[in-house]
User: Fold these one by one.
Assistant:
Number 1:
Amino acid sequence: MRIFFYAFAISLLSLNGYAKIIKYQLLNSQKEIFSFKEVCADNGVTDAPLIEVKTASSLDCMTKETPIRSFCLKKMKNNSSFIRARYDLAKNEIYCQSADRVILKYQCSKKTMGYCQNDQIGCDRLRNILAQNLSLIGHSIHEEVLGEKTLSCYFSSSSYVDSKLND
């Protein structure tokens, strides 16, 4: 199942195969699981006989579009560690995932330089996809061999930072 999430994230951020996530590490990761029917019922569509995935970020509940991120944010409103919402087609389930920290390394390319022109802006854009409620605590761009660049982003929940400061 974890492979599905990584493959989805890589396909989401890779444009025509020119860029990719080369590291996506989660610390203290947890997930809450909800059925497609629960998600639709929460959006006012009960007993939906046909529920389909409309886009990478929403379900079609009998012609009513239901964003899965909004659902997870609602269910995890008191969770400052929420990072992303994903679905599993094989099980017809939504995963609302949280983590205390996320370490992300993104290989830049000429086609995806929008993420790599400015490391803070690039990391903020990636945070919206892969580390929603976490704070950006570190960012850098490293130039590798042959001029390739790697964007590094470090995210942390406020509760994790607070606990480390009190140690």
Number 2:
Amino acid sequence: MAFSDIQTNVGDYLESASFPAMTSAMIKSWINRAVRWACNGQVIIPGSPLISHDFSFLINEVQADTIEQQRKYDLPDGNTTDVWEFRKDKNVELINSLDYRVPLTKMFKRDIEDNVNFAYLLGDGTPSVFCIEQFMLWLFCKPAHENNDDEPWTINIEYYAYLPLLVEDTDTNVFTIKYPELIEWKATSLGFEWAKDTDAQQEYENKAIKRLLEMITNDHAVDLGGIEVGMSPMSGQSLGV
């Protein structure tokens, strides 16, 4: 479903003609806020722990070369074509001059700086640890290209992303195509929140949350695969035989 269709449906749900102060720009903003909310995959249910899920279809991947003795690197901000905005890291690897990939270990920057056992990471060398802080990727050690045949390493970042803003009427994304009602209901909830209609806001918020929970359950099934039951190994068969 295109952005224009979502706008029309949200306007109908809100009966926007009844609110002279409600503009099309506001409806567009609520739709994009709904998309960002969906990307976060978080549901708060009173009396229950926070439900948080990273959708498998929002994984993106970028690469960049290291710079000699440079520790900090900007994370994707969504302003580059086809490079989605960074939300959360999934995997960070360092690729050396021989195309050998080494996963980096994630740590907190403060733990490295405050612990004498990690003092060796503060100098120059081959990066083995990364941190995410201040919307930047930090490498420890600082890259010393002499350790890589005097060539830069390639940083490969696999991450969960925020989708680009919907701007043109013909714009679509995975949510508007496969789960349009989720975006419509959440955007409508935001609209009724603006209109201070608490009952209607809660009605559409509950519908959006229920749909998001269904999506989370389905995405878990995709990640984990089906579970076969009622099966047992044949007699005499085992791994390694």
Number 3:
Amino acid sequence: MLTKAMFRTRESNRFGIAEGMMWNTGRILKGLWYNQAGEWIGYGDLAMSDIERIRDGLLEDELFVLIPEWVRVTRRTNPNVTDLEYVMENCFIIITRGKIYQTSDLPREYSDVPWHLSFELQTHEAAKRLLRDFR
């Protein structure tokens, strides 16, 4: 199970990623990482190979969500918004066992990324349903 803040320590070497990782080469996605409950599990850079390892290593009941760094949303401007609602509103990539979903077009700076991963494009509403109904 992906648990809250699990990547905070280097001991959680799951998927070969750790909180605060930074890559200097290749195309990467910088962002915040969340689980299926909307709990923050870590942050950092993810290379394409990291995303593939996550996709291949998740269990059937796990889901990994990336909210990219360019999303500049203040999380607690509305105290009535739950963690899961925040994640549903701002998710960009959702990873499940064997699948990667992209919820919107990549920003211009990523337009030349050689995305060799098999993304399934989702509308934002479809992504919200996936997150809400995932169990």
